[in-house]
Please model this.
Amino acid sequence: MNMLEGKVVLVTGAAQGIGATLARGLVERGAAVIAADIEDATPVARDIEASGGRALAVRCDVTDAQEIEHTVQAALDGFQRLDGVVNNAALFGRVQNISMFDIDMADWDQIMAVNARGPWLVARAAIPAMEQIGGGAIVNVSTNRVFVGTPELLHYDASKGAVVALTRSMAREVGGRGIRVNCVAPGLTMSENVRQRAGIDSRAPLVNARRAIQRDQQPEDLVGAVAFLLSDDARFITGQTLVVDGGSVMH
Model:
């Protein structure tokens, strides 16, 4: 279980939901974690430390380049290295299903700024720190929706389609620097915010019916895939998108 022993990983959007679960799960596998979020991630870091792990909570708005630089520096100050990044921060839980004809342009721009520009800014700031220790790994988080073509979340889907594209392009650009860049694409995952979405109780059974493994997806279902892609076991894997959705999308 210590596949990440000695590694230091920055997880964005780690104050709750998938990000908090990933932070805890990576620590269980030996990593030290920087739990970064625009919300207060201190309870997550304290919980990890109370369980014997190492964690640091940092406020980070992934649309703000200066805050991202501060976060990377905090990782170096706290743990003297940075081995990996999980670009998990995104807007989804509070984004309501809406026709493409009714999307507000300000909402479109905000979702793009967080979901698509954010991973680029975080990677850009983190890569030099990973280069200093000979390389590292980035795992971006997209969605299986981009492989399905599902209506009524066009702005969200466009932003997450961009994440798949930037994963591939970034992997080509930084592979020579010893940096691997991969992506996971979860299905509908029952995090705290998702459970609060209007109509989720009626929609979830329909989603589950399309899965080979017909149950709700939980945040914990992503930990193993992300940990593997961060680990040295995946040292020759880059530019890939791994769908983790119980077999709804198969390719």
